[in-house]
Amino acid sequence: EREERRRKWDAKADALKKEAPTILRLADTPIEGTQAEVTKERMARWQRALELYVYCPEEKGVDWLKLLEKLMEGCGEDEEEMLEALSQASQVCTNLLDQTSLASRDATDAMTEAEDAYHIRLEAHTMLADRVSEQAEKIEEQFR
Length: 144
Known about the structure:
Order of helices and strands: HHHH
Mean pLDDT: 90
Strand content: under 5%
Radius of gyration: 27 Å
Shape: rod-shaped
């Protein structure tokens, strides 16, 4: 299950890297339509840009401050519209935080398993080295 989640994370990151130029271009492209359509499209674009920020932190052109500015710039002075945008953004951030948390936990578990396997191998090699050393000492004593 953990490996499947990692494959999905990697696949999403790869897809976002490929789409990065389009995501960044669309973030600065005006949207036409009804107010509801504009709001829906603005949130969809913002979500994709946020996903790019989270999944591909090395990607240039996306930073947290710019994302917040983009989220607020279409709201104008309407307090209710601003509240709705922030509410939707909060939900998106919560979902991404849950995914990131799970990915971090998976990575920690994988590292713990690798460390355990390393310690087992190290202990086995130590035992083998001790045994070989004892045998070498016995052989050496035979020639004294």
